[in-house]
Amino acid sequence: MSREILLLVDALAHEKNVTREVIFTALELALASATKKKHDAGVDIRVEIDQETGEYQAFRCWTILPEEEIENPDAEITIEDEKSKGKANNDIVKESIPAEAFGRIGAQAAKQVILQKVREAEREQILKDFLAQDEKLVSGQIRRMERGNGIIEIGRLDAILPRDQMIPKENLRINDRIRAILIKIDETVRGPQLILSRTAPEFLIRLFELEVPEIEEGLLEIMAASRDPGLRSKIAVKANDQRLDPVGTCVGMRGSRVQAVTSELAGERVDIVLWSIEPAQFVINAMAPAEVTSIVVDEDKHSMDLAVAEDQLAQAIGRNGQNIRLASELTGWELNILTEEQSDQKTKEEYTSASQLFIE
Description:
- There is one protein chain.
- It contains eleven helices and 15 strands.
- It has about 350 residues and is α/β, with parallel strands linked by helices.
């Protein structure tokens, strides 16, 4: 029997690509589960296998607890109990019991526990191998839809693309191949769950990294991104090599690179703007295609007042405030749009107020 256990452990570990320790743990739980069927329901049975010889021993165990905390007398005892001699609270008292010869039902229960543990270990190993590759941008096939969420098959792993992380109005169907970004890993009862997104700004950044080799080479850098998924987005780029035109490089020959990104994003229009170390200049660039005639920076409030010509006002604000909102998210500044007339009026009022204060 001992030799058979060692052969079984080696075979399972090799077949399922998990460690011998995982198989030994599963076997110990399985043997304990089968042994427990010979005792009362509340009894704590544990089995220990010698990993060198394959021999195993069964134990009945009690946990030492204060009297007021005891809920299961079959598996818990107080420090005053005779068995607790030389022990302290929370210690485990073990008493050897005969190793049972398992019948057909016991073997079946053991098999179920082993398979469950091996499956869990196998899943964890696949996930560990996947995470070791450090791939944020993933590609997979939609296997099925559950309550509006997409279950995406990525190699040997399944991931979830929640409904709120899909691009609005995008018509995804079973067997479609899609790309997405890994945003988090949720711990669930069934094990770790990969959560994907197609709406996160980082997804846009990763797609450009894929299409523009100069970014991977370090010649270009994407400094920030903001999105209104499925409609419009902005990215800020900076050249680390002064000989390069960062905006033109990201657009590509006849717009080929930006079009490849747009088609992946269900037609989302992408504005590529030049990043600047000067916040005011960066904001002016981010407001494109609207032209800013003057700008007032309030560093205390971390906001800027932007003056635009009357005929540029609608373009500066954008549909439902889209342009100003995306520019604000991209730059990290609170932006206020004013017409030139409103800007002049506000400047005069502030000048009058400051002059009056000075006179007083």
